[in-house]
Specification:
Length: 284
């Protein structure tokens, strides 16, 4: 069965799906995206992702391709047509097609919308979490508005590639000695008191939807949450470290640049929070 994608109003086989060469997403990275997972037919944190999508669009003065209710229907249809129970759904909106010119195209230019879905291996994620992951540090060379979820991801891709070459699962990004986040996830440490620490939600990080839900879960578990910058040195010396994202949930980190974190095994706080996050996100 071919993979089916939604492209500007049509459901088409992914292998023949096409976008225009003058799409502004292609030429200027002038577009935004969202990724969320469906587990057992249930969307995790979907409303959070749609709220952030609307924010990304409005920060870039871009029109929404359709209202959010209709978007939910199309997402559901892409998952259904691909016969997926556990899925990773990718949505991308660009400013549309226009003759190449840096300035915005004329008012009324239709935004482009692409939605794809692929199988998400929920069990494999748990296997990975039970082992924990290695990460390496990389310089954070991104622009000043990474709070907007744009498709301009070249620095993230370079950092992730460096991690992959080093045999690590993710790159932790560092600016002026401070850990901002990771190439595709938010970074956290556990301090000596058992509190969890993550970079404040500024223009220097993407405000993760998983981060947001994890904060609510931690509060329910009476784990103290501290939003403050922390250094790479502090992270290496922390009792625990972990990352969060829609596709990793809460993922324990067991080494940074080859330095063992805590016991070198997934820490109890991260594992507890992972279970709480899964239970909470599964409620929809
Ligand atoms: N930071 C970056 C740079 C990311 O790409 C992502 C994942 N899209 C995140 C953080 C985590 O965001 P979320 O929890 O919404 O997946």
């Amino acid at each position: 069965m071919p993979h089916i994608a939604y492209v500007n109003g049509q459901y088409v086989p992914q292998s023949t799906a096409m976008v225009h060469i003058e799409d502004r997403g292609y030429q200027f990275a002038d577009g935004i995206y969202e990724v969320c997972v469906v587990v057992n037919g249930c969307y995790w944190d979907m409303d959070g992702h749609l709220v952030r999508m609307q924010r990304s669009l409005s920060e870039l003065e871009m029109d929404a391709p359709m209202d959010m209710r209709a978007l939910k229907v199309v997402m559901g249809e892409v998952v259904r047509r691909n016969r997926l129970k556990d899925a990773l759904v990718y949505m991308q909106v660009t400013r549309g097609v226009a003759p190449r010119n840096h300035a915005f195209p004329p008012e009324g230019t239709a935004p482009s919308l692409v939605i794809t879905a692929r199988r998400f291996d929920f069990d494999q994620s748990d296997v990975k979490a039970n082992h924990g992951i290695a990460v390496i540090s990389q310089p954070d060379i991104r622009w000043g508005r990474v709070d907007i979820k744009t498709v301009g991801l070249l620095p993230n891709a370079l950092a992730k590639e460096a991690a992959t070459k080093a045999g690590a699962a993710e790159a932790i990004l560092v600016r002026d000695g401070v850990v901002t986040e990771c190439s595709a996830s938010n970074a956290w440490i556990v301090d000596e008191t058992g509190a969890i620490v993550t970079h404040p939600k500024t223009n220097e990080i993407l405000g993760g939807i998983t981060r947001q839900t994890a904060i609510a879960c931690a509060e329910e578990l009476q784990i103290k949450v501290i939003e403050r910058p922390f250094t790479l040195e502090e992270a290496k010396a922390a009792p625990e470290a972990f990352l969060t994202s829609a596709t990793s949930f809460v993922m324990p980190i067991i080494s940074i640049d080859g330095t063992r974190i805590g016991s070198g095994k997934p820490g109890p706080v991260a594992l507890r929070l992972r279970e709480a996050y899964k239970a909470c996100a599964a409620k929809g």
